[in-house]
């Protein structure tokens, strides 16, 4: 059975992605949870991850780190796992926006860190110009996907895919910080929030005992030890 190493559910967006991928793929796994920014955090995670970050997948004597690599590894062994859209055009589009999420939107990650227990009525004008531009790009991206493929289902490309997994934590961030988006994007956010698996993750996050003050207090990224995620 696979093992996945995750951090705090409340704060770790990349942990959520891999957990959601395995859960929605109905693939059994065990969890190893290591809370972030505790005295033993770096020592504990170093036992599993040469990169010192989560998530990590342990498959027997194979260790895979990075969420995209984990999903690729699992899909090679489980053809029925959550995948990409069927059509060549939609698949290319989905891979492109997923890669854009994986490598980009750094200001959003900095200034709107995942915090599932919190609710902020945030004025977007208080955010950096880069963050505002990236929010607008995400909104436009979601809207474009839904306009092109929405007739096939409620997800970005109609049927649920890896693209939805990549953007699910962003949708939850927008809920946390009350980010206004288009009607099409709001429909995607509501679809994410309505997933039983997502609700299960959020419920578990609510009862976690750890608190990370510099995230809870929205300390500017230049003054915090937060690793982008």
Write the layout of secondary structure elements.
Layout: E1 2-6, H1 13-24, E2 29-33, H2 41-46, E3 56-59, E4 62-65, H3 67-77, H4 88-103, H5 106-111, H6 129-149, H7 162-176, H8 183-193, H9 196-206, H10 213-216
Parallel strand pairs: 1-2
Antiparallel strand pairs: 1-3, 3-4
Number of domains: 2
Tell how many strands the DSSP assignment holds: 4
Question: What is the string of helix and strand elements?
Answer: EHEHEEHHHHHHHH
The CATH architecture of the largest domain comes to Up-down Bundle
* Helix run count: 10
Structural class assignment: alpha+beta
**Sheet of most strands:** 4 strands, mixed
How helical, in percent, are the residues?
40-55%
Shape label: globular
Question: How far apart are the termini?
Answer: 27 Å
Structure, described:
The chain is an alpha+beta fold and 229 residues long. The protein has 2 domains: 2-82, Glutaredoxin, CATH 3.40.30.10; 88-204, Up-down Bundle (Glutathione S-transferase Yfyf (Class Pi), Chain A, domain 2). It has 10 helices and 4 strands; from the N terminus they run βαβαββαααααααα. It has helices at residues 13-24, 41-46, 67-77, 88-103, 106-111, 129-149, 162-176, 183-193, 196-206, 213-216; strands at residues 2-6, 29-33, 56-59, 62-65. The protein has a 4-stranded mixed sheet, covered by helices on one side. The radius of gyration is 17 Å and the shape is globular. The model has no long low-confidence stretch (mean pLDDT 93).
